[in-house]
Amino acid sequence: MRISPTAAYRLLVHVRRKGECLFWKGKSWAGGFRLYHEHDHSPVEPSIASWILWRGAMPKGRRIVRTCGNLRCIAPGHLEAVTPKEFAARFPVRTPPRGVDSAAHRVSGHQVYAARVSYAAGLSLLAIKRRLGIAPRTAWLLISGRTWAHIGGPVGTRSRQEAAALRYGRAE
Ligand SMILES: [Zn+2]
């Protein structure tokens, strides 16, 4: 894959520095952040675009993880291309302990990670709890990092009012 000059421009123009990280502040969608090629409008993850611009081709069959844990970060030094096996080791899918059927154990580590990213990107807590089929409180606990703390990702980055509203049974 090649990154067109326009896509590269759009990648870099939306970058804001925060500490050691370079946060991409462009358009986001529910599952992540997207940048588009102008010729065919195919999406490319900003992190992948960053990788290609600075390091060349993406190694085949690998996916990017951020060593800093900030999902909007595209700092070349913070990106690592890992194999599916390495990815699975980093974000393990927890198997429910025997006899335990709590909602918190029904979601996987990867789902938790995705839920945190979606929340940070603007998806509502209500939509996330529906998607995962869990109780609002369970959803808030995992997004805010009170449960699944080892998974990382952006935790509880939006206001707690929304969570409070859900907890008291009001719609958003
Ligand atoms: Zn970073």
Structural class from helices and strands? Answer: alpha+beta
Count of domain modules = 2
Bound molecule types: zinc ion
The largest beta-sheet arranges its strands as 1-2
Number of helices: 8
The average pLDDT value, as a whole number, equals 77
Low-pLDDT windows of residues: 97-101
Q: Fraction of residues in helices?
A: 25-40%
What is the chain-wise order of helices and strands? Answer: HEEEEEEHEEHHHHHH
Model description:
Mean pLDDT is 77; it is low at 97-101. The chain has two domains: 5-89, no CATH class; 92-167, no CATH class. The longest helix is centred in the middle third of the chain and has 12 residues, at 109-120. By secondary structure, the chain is α+β, with helices and mostly antiparallel strands. The chain is built from eight helices and eight strands; from the N terminus they run αββββββαββαααααα. It has a two-stranded antiparallel ribbon with strand order 1-2. Residues 21, 66, 68, 70, 73, 75, 78 line the site of zinc ion.
Summary, kept brief:
By secondary structure, this protein is of the alpha+beta class. It has two domains: 5-89, no CATH class; 92-167, no CATH class. The protein has helices spanning 5-13, 46-55, 84-90, 103-106, 109-120, 125-132, 136-143, 160-167; strands spanning 15-18, 21-24, 28-29, 32-33, 35-36, 43-44, 63-66, 79-82.
